[in-house]
# Entry
Amino acid sequence: MARLPLVEPKDAPEAVRDALERLPVQLNIMRTMAHAETCFRPLLRLGSAILGKQSLDADLRELAILQIAALSSARYEWTQHVPIAQGAGVR
# Structure
């Protein structure tokens, strides 16, 4: 059960709403993180840099994320990243 309600884009401040609406996929984790209004857009830039603008190949990155998720019993992270890993070629 979530401890915080999900931020509805229509109810969010303009900058947060715009950032949420530009996301290619509407993940609940992002709608939860949107409660941190002043940190939300910088967080998105950090996530973009980590996931898309590094020299680590996508399949290796996703294997590392899944390994840490398994070791940490992080079910949410595992559930979110299995399809991403499969899309990156991990079988």
The CA atoms of residues 6 and 36 lie 12 Å apart.
